Structures are given as structure tokens and as C-alpha cells.
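Just curious. Invent one:
>
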Amino acid sequence: MAGIIKTVAVMGLGKVGSLAAELLHESGFTVTGYDLYPKDKCPFKTEKLDLADVKAVSKALQQNDAVLSCLPYSLNIGLSTLAAKHKTHYFDLTEDVPTTQHIRKLAETSETVFAPQCGLAPGFIGIVGAHLANNFERIRSIKLRVGALPQNPTGLMGYNFNWSPEGVVNEYLNDCEVIEEGVHKWVSPLEWLETIYIGGQKLEAFTTSGGLGTMCETYAGKVENLDYKTMRYPGHAALMNFFFHELLMREDRKKAGEILTNAKPPVNDDIVYVHASAEGLVNGQMHREEFVRGYKPQLIAGKYWRAISWTTAASVAAVIEMVNNGALPQKGFIKQEEIPLGAYLKTKNGQYYIKGDKETHMKDILFDDVTKKEGRSCA
């Protein structure tokens, strides 16, 4: 494959990592997937790797042009530091603010790319939000909302943990960055509750951390109001506030994640709601632009993948494609909001968002009970 990236190390072969590795493999990259318990029969090479073995991790980085971390955010500081040392292009899916700040510092003196936050939120939602905002002479607001939800919710919580419980707990408890009336602020999570309707479905949205990535910095002095919220079915925020604060589960994040995952395990029939809007002046008049979608599971390489899996994996794979083909800078720190949406959607992996958009507007999508199971690239 032409470009600066020929070989990619994918660290972590969970639901997203295994699909991201397969998408990169299908895009022409030579991929090696690393995991403590690697799967068999993958279309790409896999190797066992203990991330505590710094020497082994360093060897893997030296053997590849780029590394994609699909690991828990807590492991990305160490991995990104080694990537800088060995001059390996670095990509990840983190929503953790301190981790991104560390990576930003590494990029200041690096001759390689550092592109964290390449998933859904932060990631795709920021690319869309920036695209909408580009239409205005003066921007009054940018509002970004994402919800990864079961299509058929049960119980009062109306939720299933198809995403990392560690990541969800982290974003429910860490402070949230916003711009309000032109002032950069940090506000509490699980607040600023609002009601949103998408295709007749009533949802609630509330503040969570990390979803804006670096957008507050980019739009400081350019926008009056900027915020990110997570969408859930009504009543979810009140239950989470009770769980974390009245029951004091905020004091043991690991245990909180274990309890929630045990109570609400993953489901195959999920949906990812995306609601981005921007308001501002065009020719002296106030206008509003919106991007509203509901992405469902999609058939990829002969297997159905959950919506949260393919939206996340396709997003980071598209960014790697763009770095490789020169559509993005080939060194330094890459902000998601600086990625042009048009070029992003033209990549092989960005096309999945277009295909998913078409399927969203079908009246009904029926999957066979057997083939509908979550796709697994490797047996």
C-alpha cells in the first residue's frame, strides 16, 4: 500500500479491536493483532503480548509503522510514550482528558503522527460538528449528542453495556468541558438534562466527560456555546445519580463497572443515535444546521456487527487511511475537528457511515436469528 503506513499493530482484540484490525487488513494494510489471549483463524496475523512486558511491546512497535490502541484508556499513557520513543505513528479511541493531554505533549517534539480520540465520541461526532459549524459567519452554538443504546430496552435503566464499562463509568463521573456564553468551564456530569426526539423516539441527554475532545480549545473565542451530552432513554440519569452518589459507588469505580455489566450485559440489537447541531449567522440571518442519524448493526465481511462496534472501528480506520494517503498531516497532533468530513466519508472505511445511513432509513431490517449474532473476525 502506498503512503507512510504499511504495517499496523492493533493492540487489544476485543469487539472493536478485532473489527478495526479486519477493516485495516481489508484496506490493504499489513496488520498484526496483539492480545494477551489472541483469537484464532483471523484474516490477519495475531500474536500473544503481555503489555506489562515493556521489552516485548517495544519490539512490536519497532516492527510496525503505526499502532492502534483498542485498550482501556488507563493503558494508553504507557503505550503512547513507547510509540514516541520508537517513532511509531499512534492512534487510539480514548475519551480520557488527562491521557489526551499526555499524548498532546508527546506530539510537540515528534516526527510521527499522534491521533487520539478517533472513535465515535470523541471522534466522528466532532468531525460532523465542525463540518456543520463551518457554514456560519458567526457561531452561536455547537451541540453534540451521542447515545449507544439497545434497540429494545428493558427495565428502568433502559441500557446495556455494549461499550467498555470502565469508559462509561469514567465519563459519568469526571468533570465535563464546555463553553457557556463564551466562557470556558468545567461542569459536573449527569446534569444539564434535556429532552430530545429522534424519529419519534423520546430520549434524554445529559453532560458526560470527554466527548468534545479538543474542541473547546479550537473554538475558544469563536463560539458562544459548545457542549457534549450522552443520550439515554428517559429516567437513566436519575438512576445513575442515585447509584453513584446516594449509594456512594463513585468511591469504587471498578466495582461499579462490574455491578452494572453483570446487571445489564451486552445485546446484539443495538442502535447508535447521533444528533449534532450548529446555529449561527449566514448573511446576517440566524440559521440552524442538523445532522441526525440512528445507526444499526451492519453486515461487514459476511458478519453482522453491533452498531457501536462498527461506528467506532470504521471511524479510526478511516483516519488511519487519511494519514496514510496524505489527506491529513503526517506528523504531529491531529485534532478530530480538523478532519474534513467529505474526505473522511470518501475513504473505504468512511463509506460504512454512508451505507449505515441508507440502512437507517429503511422501514425495517430483519436479521436471521443465527446470523444476527455479533460478528467475530476470528474463531
Remarks:
- Residues 307-324 form the longest helix (18 residues).
- The chain has twelve helices and 17 strands.
